Amino acid sequence: MGALDFLLKLPARRNTAQLPTKPERSVPAPVAVSELPADARSKAGERLRFVRLVEITKASRRLSDAAACEFVAVNHAAEFPILRSSGHNGASQLTYNNLRNWRPAVREGGSDEAILQRLADGYTRGIQKARGDVRFWEYFHAFYLNLNKLPVTVAYQRAAAKMRSVDPSVTVPTLAQARYRVAQLDPAVVILAREGEEACKNKCIDYIKRDWNGIPAGEVVIGDSRTFDTRVRVLDPQTGKYRAVRPTIAALIDGRSWYMAAYWITTEPVNADTLIRTLALYCLNTGGQPPAVAYFDNGKDYCAQGFSTPLVAGGVEHSIFKELGITLINSIAYNARAKTIEREFRDMMQQFDKMFPDYLGSRPGQRTLAADYFDTHAEELPELGQFSSIFADWLAGYHSTPKRGEIHRGKSPAEIWTARQPRPAMSAERLRLAVCKPEGIRTVGRGPAVSLAGQWFYCDALKVGTKALVKSDPFDPTRVLCYTPDGALIGEARTREAIRALALDDEAARAAIGELIGRQRKQLREARTTLERLTGGRAQASPLELFLAEPGAELVPVGSRRSVKGAAHSFTRYTLPGTIEAAPQQPEAAPELEFREDEEEAELAAAHELLTRPPCGTDDDALDLSIAHDFITNNHKGDDDDDY
């Protein structure tokens, strides 16, 4: 083996293309002087003054560069508090060598801003360019900027493992570099990724500060609903046991005073009818004075057609807000900060909900064992009436408590609300009609009646076959109001209870049947009277007879007929004299006899006539006797007297 044979056993040198590329160092961009820290900016300014002062001293005293520099360092040291002690180990930097280093930057010219930028230390600000493979940082940011909130170390480990599985040749940055990158991230981005959009809005995003002092009390109402973090007992009719239910409140507060002028607490889901009843209660509490503006969110019930947004029928807009003269303003979706009612809901949760033994907490993690106890002991919870009474007492105290801040300025909500200026009021009758919700156009059916939600509502003022706009009553489900499509009131329609099919021993049902039969006869009689009035009593004649008759001719009945079929069960024929002359009446011909029994009946009739005819002196007696003889002999069927 040769002396150099051991080289053959050495591993082959890797191709340079297989070697990991060395990350390029980032070259920081020049930083503006105004962005420099104060000490770095002052130090650059002293360097500029030092160079210029040396140039002035050199020219005025005819000194060399070194001599002028030494003169300035000795006689003007007080003017350079930073440079005289910023050298190595506190030495002075007012030296000839530094002059030679700084003077080219000054002689290069330009504005003072540009010169100071060149004289400043190599200072960089902001986020430095990431070192390492771009793919690693994408994986790391994806692991860290996540709602799962992985710690930095775990996110780094997962990103490093993923990167090694994708490309083993890539050099993974260090954990310290990862921590540096996290520290340089925008806090708004971190909160958005790890806590959610709502947290980002509340902690980082700018907000609008609204000035409510210029809004009079009673002009703007803010509406919203909230489910309490406590429960009441409700009897289940199917099981006969109590169950725990979280009640919900639909509230309207005054935007200026925060006074809750109307609210509705229910254990049922809040819908458009609940909001309509709450608005009607607001108008009732204010003496018939609806607000000018309503500030609602974009929920489907708050923007229901016919309530706050118009229902278009026949080209005309109909809504409760239009009848009350209220303008709707919708807040931005999912933007609770825009509605001051959310502040009152927060106070309600902290001051009212937490008083109850089964407080559930505003988040699942706050639920206690006491709440679990009441899941199976709902009978120990208050009923809805008692709960509402307790809430009314708390709300009265809340309204009378003075509040600080620019809106209240030491006054209570009740003080500001009570001192409000009156607004135009509506009468009770107008309010009763205005809070009925337009439901749509219906065709009037027999009765006359209109159908809504599977029920029939009857109103005598309606006309069968016409169109009617139907409005529901939020306080009375058995009543609707009927209007013409353009909004003119027709009348009130109500439901009717069904009657027992067989009312044999039910006096009330029999009376109801009798009343309805009388109603039917009255309607038919009124229709006939109207027909008689409109036609002058000539509706029974045919158009041809009306055309041919003389003026003033009177109808003459000539016959009638009855039948179980047809449009009417009885018919009376009327005619007008001098129009269609009837043919002369012919004597009736003897009916043709088809059976033996018919012949016998005819013979009996002839015999009866013969026997009862008075005697006369004609020769017809023999003929009559022969007819009687034939009848007797032909009907003799045997010798038995019984058969005969």
Automatic annotation (TrEMBL):
<feature type="domain" description="Integrase catalytic">
    <location>
        <begin position="212"/>
        <end position="421"/>
    </location>
</feature>
<dbReference type="InterPro" id="IPR012337">
    <property type="entry name" value="RNaseH-like_sf"/>
</dbReference>
<dbReference type="InterPro" id="IPR015126">
    <property type="entry name" value="Mu_I-gamma"/>
</dbReference>
<dbReference type="GO" id="GO:0003676">
    <property type="term" value="F:nucleic acid binding"/>
</dbReference>
<dbReference type="Pfam" id="PF09299">
    <property type="entry name" value="Mu-transpos_C"/>
</dbReference>
<dbReference type="InterPro" id="IPR001584">
    <property type="entry name" value="Integrase_cat-core"/>
</dbReference>
<dbReference type="InterPro" id="IPR015378">
    <property type="entry name" value="Transposase-like_Mu_C"/>
</dbReference>
<dbReference type="InterPro" id="IPR036397">
    <property type="entry name" value="RNaseH_sf"/>
</dbReference>
<dbReference type="Pfam" id="PF09039">
    <property type="entry name" value="HTH_Tnp_Mu_2"/>
</dbReference>
<dbReference type="GO" id="GO:0015074">
    <property type="term" value="P:DNA integration"/>
</dbReference>
<protein>
    <recommendedName>
        <fullName>Integrase catalytic domain-containing protein</fullName>
    </recommendedName>
</protein>
